[in-house]
Amino acid sequence: AAPRLATITLGLRGSERVADLVSLYEGIGELAEVHRIAIAGGDIVRSPECLSISVTAIGEVRRERLLRRSGARVGDVIAVSGTIGASAAGLQILANPERFAGMATTGLLVAAHLQPIPRIALGQLLGELGVAAAMDLSDGLLGDLPKILAASGVGATVDARALPVAPSVRALFPDTWLDLALRGGEDYELLFTAPPSRFDEILRRAEAIGSTVTAIGRIEPEPHGLVLRGPDGAEHDVVPGAFDHFGAT
Question: 138 forms bridges with which residues in the sheet?
Answer without folding.
Answer: none
